[in-house]
Amino acid sequence: xxxxxxxxxxxxxxxxxxxxxxxxxxxxxxSPDGRxxxxxxYDNxxxxxxxxxxxxxxxxxxxxxxxxxxxxxSPDGxxxxxxxHDKTxxxxxxxxxxxxxxxxKGHTHGVGTxxxSPDGRxxxxxxHDTxxxxxxxxxxxxxxxxxxxxxxxxxxxxxSPDGxxxxxxxNDKTxxxxxxxxxxxxxxxxKGHTDGVATxxxSPDGRxxxxxxxxxxxxxxxxKxxxxxxxxxxGHGDGVCxxxxSPDGRRxxxxxYDCxxxxxxxKxxxxxxxxxxxxxxxxxxxxxxSPDGRxxxxxxHDRxxxxxxxxxxxxxxxxxxxxxxxxxxxxxSPDGRxxxxxxVDNxxxxxxxxxxxxxxxxxxxxxxxxxxxxxSPxGRxxxxxxYDRxxxxxxxDxxxxxxxxxxxxxxxxxxxxxSPDGxxxxxxxxxKTIRVxxxxxxxVAYxxxxxxxSYVxxxxxSPxGxYxxxxxNDRSxxxxxxxxxxxxxxx
Length: 491
Fold this sequence. Notes:
- By secondary structure, the protein is mostly beta strands.
- It has two domains: 2-265, YVTN repeat-like/Quinoprotein amine dehydrogenase (Methylamine Dehydrogenase, Chain H, 7 Propeller), CATH 2.130.10; 284-490, YVTN repeat-like/Quinoprotein amine dehydrogenase (Methylamine Dehydrogenase, Chain H).
- The protein contains no helices and 42 strands.
- The strands form twelve sheets. Strands 3-4-5-6 form a four-stranded antiparallel sheet, with no helix packed on it.
- A hairpin with a 5-residue loop joins strand 33 and strand 34 (381-386).
- Residues 276-281 have low confidence and may be disordered.
C-alpha cells in the first residue's frame, strides 16, 4: 500500500514511504517534469503525490468501479490516463483531478496497460484479452480497428520514442511490433521467453527493446531487426513485472515478484549492483492487539507472524515460522497466551506467545486459503473462514474440528467473528452477504443480510452485541440489528 522513492545512483531509499492507498498499488508514473507522481491501486482510486515532499496532492481520483491496473501522464503533463479492471479508460485533469469526459469504452475485459503517444494525440490500451486499441486523446473515439495478433492477453504496450511504432508484450510469450499509423503488425513476433511477457519498454533512442517475463528473465532486442541482443539477463528469483530504461539509456531497471529491484548495465547486460530490497516489501496483511494492549502481532506474505512492543515498536522475540505460504489472518486468545493464524497454505496454526513456538500440529480441513480466524470470547474455540466458502469451528485446546463445516455462502468467506456472548458467529463473503450462525448448532440464525453491492471484506459485533457492522468493497460500511438482521444505517 506504499510507494517508495530511491536514489538511482546509490540505491538508498529517499524519505518516508508515500502512504494513503488502502490496498495494494498496481502502477506508478512520474509527471514529465518530475515534480509529481501518480499511482493506481486495488482500492479503485488514483492518487497524485508531490515527488519532493511525498505529500498527497488533493483528494483521490475516483470514478473507476474496480482495480486501477495502469496509469500514465500525457507528454505535456496536463492529463493522466488510467486503465481499470472495470473495462474502461479514464482521462483526468492532472491539475484539478477532475475526470475529463466520459470513460473510454470498448474493451470486453479489464484494461491492464495504457500509454500516450509521444505527441499526446493518441492513447493505446491493452486489456486482459487479445486485442489492443488506439484512441483519439482529444475526442476519446477509437482510431481504426483493434490490433489483433496475440493469442494471449496483452500485458504491456508502449509507443516508440518517435511515435511510429507500438510494441506489445503478451501472455503468449511474445513481443509484437506494430505500425502506429496503420495498426499493421511489423515483422514476426519476437520469441525467446518461455513464459508470459509482463512488461516491455523502448530505449530512449528507440534502437532497442527490453522485456521482462514470468520466466524470471529480462531480454534485450534490436528494435529494427527483432533479433535478441546478447543472452537473457538472469538474477531475479521470480517473475519480472516491470522494466524501464534510464533517461540516458545506460541502465535498465527491473522490478520482480521476488520483492527486489535490480539495476543492469544496458550494454553488456550485467547487474550493476546488488538488488535493492525495501524493509516492508513483503505485504503485511493483518494485525491485532493483545488483550492488554501491550503488544501487536502482524501476519505477512513472507509466511511469518511477528510480535511487537506496542509502546516502543520494537520486535519482541523471533518471528513465528511454520506456515508454508502467506499469512492472511491473526488473532490473540482472550487470555493473551496464544495466537492463532490462518494462511494461504490452507491451514490454521496455534502459537505459544511466550515461547514463540507452534502448539501442536496445523489444523487441517480447509481445501483453500484461510482468510480469517477468531477466538471465541471464552477462548475455548477458534473459527476460520476460507476461500473454500466454508466456516469451520475448532477446539482451541486439542485442535480438533468441532462438528461439520458451516456451509451456505456462494463464494469465498473473507471475515468471521464471534458475538460478545459467544452464542453467534457472523461471516462476510465475496457473495456480498453477511450470515449469522448459531455457534452451538451451526444452524443459520436467519436470512442472509443483503445490501452490499460488492464483496464483504470485514464484519464485527458492537461491544454490547446489539449491532453488526460490515465493511465492503462497495466503499460502504453498513450497520445491522444483530437480533433481527434488519439494516439500521449506512455510512
